[in-house]
Amino acid sequence: MTNIVLATDGSPFSDAAARAIVEGKLLQPGFTVHVVHVAPEVTGQVRAFVSKDAIDDWHREESEKAMKSVCDILAAGQVPVQTHALHGFPSERIVEQARALNAEAIVMGTHGRGSFFDAVLGSVAGRVLASAPCPVVLVKAPDRK
């Protein structure tokens, strides 16, 4: 079976990417979507006062919340889904997961802020594009009227 990675940050932009998959706008049927959310690492100061179990629970809860919406959209469209709650630097972990799954593509929603903002703020999508082992499909959410 073909594997597709759908990276989500829990935003409406990620939901638009999930809807594009369900609507068949991007890919032919016959794939499993691996929904990936990457929670940030906590600082060493936090680790000094909070147990590893509590941090692991926080990472899992944050990822479950962020993945819920896209998983609901994909399930409603009867698309096979597996979830991956990760933590670390988002672009690196997304690319690592795509490599590990031998993914045919990475799908991401984009905020579409433009090159100036991305140059100043940085862009997870841009970093994924630069190092992905497979095609990357960026989906922009439709403008709200």
From TrEMBL:
Residue stretches making up the UspA domain: 2-140
Source species, domain of life: Bacteria
Pfam families, sorted: Usp
InterPro entries tied to this protein: Rossmann-like_a/b/a_fold (IPR014729), Universal_stress_UspA (IPR006015), UspA (IPR006016)
Family: Belongs to the universal stress protein A family.
PANTHER family, sorted: STRESS RESPONSE PROTEIN NHAX (PTHR46268), UNIVERSAL STRESS PROTEIN UP12 (PTHR46268:SF6)
Record-given protein name: UspA domain-containing protein
Lineage of the species this protein comes from: Bacteria, Pseudomonadati, Pseudomonadota, Betaproteobacteria, Burkholderiales
